[in-house]
């Protein structure tokens, strides 16, 4: 039997694993990390590479290691040039990944790695049994659910049928399968005005395409995806005093700068607009058809025609779609808020020995829960609870 099963080997899961090991809460041979992909951070690397991200949005103190200055010390030790960008020292993506890989290698997380998808979780006396789709069963004293919603793609209603029937013409940027760039025509639409849409517009322009960025609302510029006050007592003291989870959910929605982009990406995008490489159109698409292998988009008053359409519309967060999670909620009678998300203790226990981090912990952690900073906060709380 393992001490810990961590479901999800992305930023959230690897951060928790790092904290547990660094603080001596467990040993790597007593841990199992379950993830659909072959190696740690695989989906993170795929998504960030897909949009050609150059730097993280978060500052240098947010990474996998418990010591907030570990990454700056690592940069100095390895004499890494251009490791950080700007006033907030946002890590270069390649460097951040190199730093993460070094931590993963030092802690030998590959020894705990188990590729697979969760089918079910059951409690038997004082232990948890996690069943995988492969038929494997793993037992542990503690389980931490760190997986999020990054496989639930948000697709506009008008695009759903076209994406299914014409995947070579309408494609979500975070599909599992990459597009063949050689097959993409010269006139491309990117749908979505957040940081992903901006990155996509810049990337496909660099690939020699004429890009139109279609946005519903004016571009929103914010350095971070929530105010830094949510990282500490400035905002969190008031938040923790709120017992009404509907009110907490409302505050989370208000605090998140959803669909925004930081100033440096905005400035870069505007250069492409000035150079005629990218056109920004503010309009709401209502319908779409395929006509002579072209995608024709229709708004209330305008019609557009493109060779291909890239959806940079993000993800949904439908907890009802995670079947194994719904089963354990019913079998263990786990407490949920009106939105279906977990109501947990301060140390992020949903019930004894069952922890959550990331999106599933946001009603407790607050607006930063899904970010690297939220992963650190969650890991700190869990480590503190199991160390005492």
Automatic annotation (TrEMBL):
<dbReference type="InterPro" id="IPR036188">
    <property type="entry name" value="FAD/NAD-bd_sf"/>
</dbReference>
<feature type="domain" description="FAD/NAD(P)-binding">
    <location>
        <begin position="4"/>
        <end position="218"/>
    </location>
</feature>
<protein>
    <submittedName>
        <fullName>NAD(P)-binding domain-containing protein</fullName>
    </submittedName>
</protein>
<dbReference type="GO" id="GO:0016491">
    <property type="term" value="F:oxidoreductase activity"/>
</dbReference>
<dbReference type="InterPro" id="IPR023753">
    <property type="entry name" value="FAD/NAD-binding_dom"/>
</dbReference>
<dbReference type="Pfam" id="PF07992">
    <property type="entry name" value="Pyr_redox_2"/>
</dbReference>
């Amino acid at each position: 039997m393992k001490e810990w099963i961590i479901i999800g080997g992305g930023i959230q899961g690897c951060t928790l694993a790092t904290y547990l090991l660094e603080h001596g809460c467990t040993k790597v041979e007593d841990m199992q990390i379950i993830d659909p992909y072959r190696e740690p951070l695989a989906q993170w690397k795929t998504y960030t590479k897909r949009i050609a991200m150059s730097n993280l949005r978060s500052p240098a103190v947010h990474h996998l290691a418990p010591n907030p200055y570990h990454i700056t010390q690592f940069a100095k030790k390895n004499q890494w040039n251009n490791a950080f960008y700007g006033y907030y020292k946002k890590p270069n993506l390649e460097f951040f990944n190199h730093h993460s890989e070094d931590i993963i290698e030092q802690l030998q997380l590959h020894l705990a790695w188990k590729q697979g998808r969760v089918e079910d979780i059951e409690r038997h006396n004082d232990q948890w049994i996690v069943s995988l789709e492969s038929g494997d069963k793993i037992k542990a004293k503690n389980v931490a659910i760190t997986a999020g919603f990054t496989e639930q793609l948000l697709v506009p209603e008008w695009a759903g049928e076209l994406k299914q029937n014409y995947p070579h013409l309408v494609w979500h940027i975070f599909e599992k399968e990459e597009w063949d760039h050689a097959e993409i025509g010269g006139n491309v639409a990117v749908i979505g005005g957040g940081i992903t849409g901006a990155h996509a517009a810049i990337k496909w322009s660099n690939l020699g395409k004429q890009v139109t960025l279609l946005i519903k609302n004016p571009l929103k510029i914010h350095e971070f995806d929530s105010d830094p006050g949510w990282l500490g007592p400035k905002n969190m003291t008031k938040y923790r005093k709120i017992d009404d989870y509907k009110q907490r959910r409302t505050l989370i929605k208000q605090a998140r700068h959803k669909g925004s982009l930081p100033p440096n990406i905005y400035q870069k995008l505007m250069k492409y607009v000035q150079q005629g490489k990218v056109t920004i159109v503010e309009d709401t698409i209502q319908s779409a058809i395929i006509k002579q292998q072209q995608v024709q988009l229709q708004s209330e008053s305008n019609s557009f025609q493109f060779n291909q359409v890239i959806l940079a519309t993000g993800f949904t967060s439908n907890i009802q779609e995670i079947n194994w999670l719904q089963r354990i909620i019913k079998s263990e009678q786990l407490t949920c808020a009106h939105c279906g998300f977990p109501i947990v203790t301060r140390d992020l226990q949903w019930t004894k020995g069952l922890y959550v981090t990331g999106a599933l912990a946001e009603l407790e952690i607050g607006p930063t829960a899904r970010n690297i900073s939220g992963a650190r906060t969650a890991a700190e709380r869990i480590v503190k609870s199991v160390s005492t």
